[in-house]
């Protein structure tokens, strides 16, 4: 029995013992099923990479490598030297099964050109080399590996003519036969590849212009390219974009390097490394270099965001250096924008926010963002929005923003904050019409607000932007932009009320109160305090809400602001109502309504009347309550207050329910649900569904009730029975 047959027979025996089919082994090793079959029968020559991989996948270390033939038989298409310049494969390679398959499929397809692109440190070269080792045996004339030095420190990107010279020498062309003229050299290169079957790995490409002259015309040749740029203009290539490792793969890599089993500490460490393979390897090396460190020590050191990049440096490798190689290829416009974007405190942003920061036009900004995205310096979590990898944000703030003069940084943040207030004010006007708004001044350098044509567009804008606006509100307070802090909070309040986002609502208004105090702006302080009370009532924190209302009421009276005073009385009445003090609530609501009617404030008068109706229902005067609700519904429709109309129909349904007018209650709740859905209020929609379920249960229709209650739970689970009468009635069924 020959050595080759011995290897193949042992591989077959071990595979079957492991319960794997040839197809399953092919999927695990990324070698083709046909090739593995030939290896097992002795028709194809095994290689060390295959032997080591099969040992690993089958869990039989040391059993296959010794059986490799000493003198591999090579198929030759020509008598030239068969080059193989691949670097060693990276040990402890984990994950990437999908990407490996995509690269293999691309290289096996017609044309056979694949671009693997990704940010610095994500493992592009490791993936390419691993693929090349697995595929090399399928190329009769071997493999060529060339570092194009597109992103190398201290070394210019290799010119195509220089690469041609190098490759021609490897292919056996004597130096004296290599033409000096670049075009002639390129022609000779293509000629030398004619008829060959060769895998060409072009690592670390700068751009498509550097790569295109190196592409062979021979269809039996294949090309695998890696780059920190997407190289999208290589139309003939298939493109594989490499992202960070999955959480399990990242933990597996760290464990393989350090011996630490998966668990919460490892998960936190790799998350703080941004799940970048290079960062994980550096962190593991740091841990190995300090035997006295515990895993928690490394975790704590990486947890200090201000010096995380400093910790990711093992003396030979540094994440900041890897990022610098990408940043140095930026033009002045892109570099300045990249630095200024670090001032944006949100997780993502759009071109409008970036334009406000940079002071560039939308078109110029869009082009610069595209360039940064093409170079993997920005992510694109969804269409039209951009963001940072955590480590790149830190790098941008530390290394790139430092080159922007401080006055320019301060002006950029002021523009961003003012633009955000301007846009939020426009959105608030569309989603909460008729609301009182203070006059806000904007400088000439503040960009126009985003275009919002109607309330639906405004609501969609809020949904996309609110997390960033909350972060910006806090950053404004921290940077001393106190006017913009309380203004942002003011214009977020309506959306937070509709969406019931209580935590950010409360947080923004607490920052805003502090900013108003710093400014000495008593009106802003009282308004932020009163709006904070609304949020606290909405969340059921009634005692604290009452304390805030009393505080705001005192300031408004001190200022002689009758509108503010009566608005707080009306808002506090809701807290009194929910606390069971219905008579006191009714008294204050009527005082407030009388003031609004005297001053011609139809919106607030109607809202307060609806509150009176709800209170009358609690006082067992539901017929009177229904009459008031029916009276104010046309006012809300006339004023375009869709959410208030939905709330009024729910109030009407609640009143009719208490008078046993089930048909009328059902009609009111159905209309409330339709209106609430249209204006994006999951809370009022769920309230209406709960009411419909209650009516059905009272009528003796438990199946119908269950359907409506299930809809309510799906739409907005856990309605508070203290705040929502319908939820309280449901509990009694």
TrEMBL record:
Entries under Gene3D superfamilies matching the protein: lambda repressor-like DNA-binding domains, P-loop containing nucleotide triphosphate hydrolases, Tetratricopeptide repeat domain
HTH cro/C1-type domain ranges (all copies): 11-64
Cross-referenced SMART domains: HTH_XRE
Top-rank lineage group of the source organism: Bacteria
Pfam families from the UniProt entry: AAA_16, HTH_31, TPR_10
Protein name: Helix-turn-helix domain-containing protein
Organism from which the protein derives: Amycolatopsis samaneae
């Amino acid at each position: 029995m020959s050595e080759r047959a011995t290897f193949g027979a042992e591989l077959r025996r071990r595979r079957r013992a492991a319960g794997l089919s040839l197809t399953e082994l092919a999927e695990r090793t990324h070698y083709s099923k046909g090739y593995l079959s030939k290896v097992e029968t002795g028709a194809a020559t095994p290689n060390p990479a295959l032997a080591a991989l099969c040992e690993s996948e089958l869990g039989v270390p040391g059993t296959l490598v010794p059986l490799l033939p000493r003198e591999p038989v090579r198929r030759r298409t020509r008598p030239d030297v068969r080059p193989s310049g691949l670097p060693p494969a990276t040990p402890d390679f984990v994950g990437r099964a999908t990407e490996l398959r995509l690269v293999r499929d691309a290289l096996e397809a017609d044309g056979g050109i694949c671009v693997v692109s990704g940010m610095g440190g994500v493992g592009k070269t490791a993936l390419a080399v691993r693929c090349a080792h697995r595929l090399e045996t399928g190329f009769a004339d071997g493999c060529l590996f060339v570092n194009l030095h597109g992103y190398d420190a201290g070394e210019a990107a290799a010119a195509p003519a220089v690469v041609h010279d190098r490759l021609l020498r490897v292919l056996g062309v004597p130096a004296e036969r290599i033409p000096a003229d670049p075009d002639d050299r390129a022609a000779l290169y293509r000629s030398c590849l004619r008829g060959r079957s060769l895998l060409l790995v072009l690592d670390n490409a700068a751009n498509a212009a550097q790569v295109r002259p190196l592409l062979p015309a021979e269809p039996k040749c294949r090309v695998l390219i890696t780059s920190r740029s997407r190289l999208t203009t290589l139309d003939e290539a298939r493109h594989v974009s490499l992202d960070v490792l999955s959480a399990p793969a990242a933990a597996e890599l760290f464990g393989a390097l350090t011996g630490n089993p998966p668990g919460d500490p490892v998960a936190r460490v790799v998350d703080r490394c941004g799940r970048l393979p290079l960062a994980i390897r550096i962190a593991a090396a740091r841990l190995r270099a300090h035997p006295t460190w515990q895993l928690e020590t490394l975790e704590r050191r990486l947890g200090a965001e201000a010096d995380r990049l400093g910790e990711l440096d093992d003396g030979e490798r540094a994440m900041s250096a890897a990022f610098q190689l990408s940043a140095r290829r930026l033009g002045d416009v892109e570099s300045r924008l990249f630095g200024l974007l670090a001032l944006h405190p949100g997780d993502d942003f759009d071109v409008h926010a970036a334009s406000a920061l940079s002071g560039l036009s939308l078109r110029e900004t869009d082009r610069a963002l595209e360039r940064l995205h093409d170079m993997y310096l920005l992510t694109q979590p969804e269409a039209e929005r951009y963001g940072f990898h955590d480590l790149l944000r830190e790098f941008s703030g530390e290394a790139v923003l430092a080159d922007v003069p401080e006055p320019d940084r301060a002006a950029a943040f002021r523009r961003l904050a003012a633009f955000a207030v301007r846009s939020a004010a426009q959105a608030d006007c569309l989603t909460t019409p008729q609301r009182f708004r203070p006059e806000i001044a904007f400088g000439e350098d503040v960009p126009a607000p985003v275009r919002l044509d109607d309330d639906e567009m405004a609501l969609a804008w809020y949904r996309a932007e609110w997390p960033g606006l909350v972060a910006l509100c806090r950053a404004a307070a921290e940077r001393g932009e106190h006017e913009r802090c309380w203004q942002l909070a003011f214009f977020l309040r309506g959306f937070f009320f509709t969406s019931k986002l209580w935590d950010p609502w409360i947080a923004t208004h607490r920052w805003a109160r502090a900013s108003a105090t710093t400014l000495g702006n008593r009106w802003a302080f009282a308004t932020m305090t009163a709006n904070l009370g609304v949020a606290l009532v909405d969340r059921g924190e009634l005692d604290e809400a009452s304390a805030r209302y009393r505080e705001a009421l005192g300031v408004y009276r001190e200022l002689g602001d009758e509108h503010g005073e009566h608005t707080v009385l009306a808002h506090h009445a809701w807290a009194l109502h929910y606390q069971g003090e219905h008579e006191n609530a009714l008294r204050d609501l009527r005082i407030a309504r009388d003031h609004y009617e005297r001053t011609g404030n139809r919106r607030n008068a109607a809202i307060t009347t609806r509150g009176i109706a709800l209170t009358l229902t609690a006082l067992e005067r539901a017929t009177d309550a229904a009459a008031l609700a029916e009276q104010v519904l046309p006012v809300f429709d006339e004023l375009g207050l869709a959410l208030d109309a939905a709330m009024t129909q729910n109030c009407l349904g609640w009143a009719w329910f208490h008078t046993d007018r089930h048909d009328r209650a059902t009609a009111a709740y159905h209309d409330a649900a339709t209106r609430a859905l249209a204006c994006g209020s999951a809370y009022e929609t769920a309230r209406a569904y709960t009411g419909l379920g209650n009516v059905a249960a009272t009528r003796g229709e438990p199946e119908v009730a269950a359907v409506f209650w299930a809809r309510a739970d799906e739409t907005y689970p856990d309605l508070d029975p203290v705040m929502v009468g319908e939820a309280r009635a449901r509990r009694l069924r």
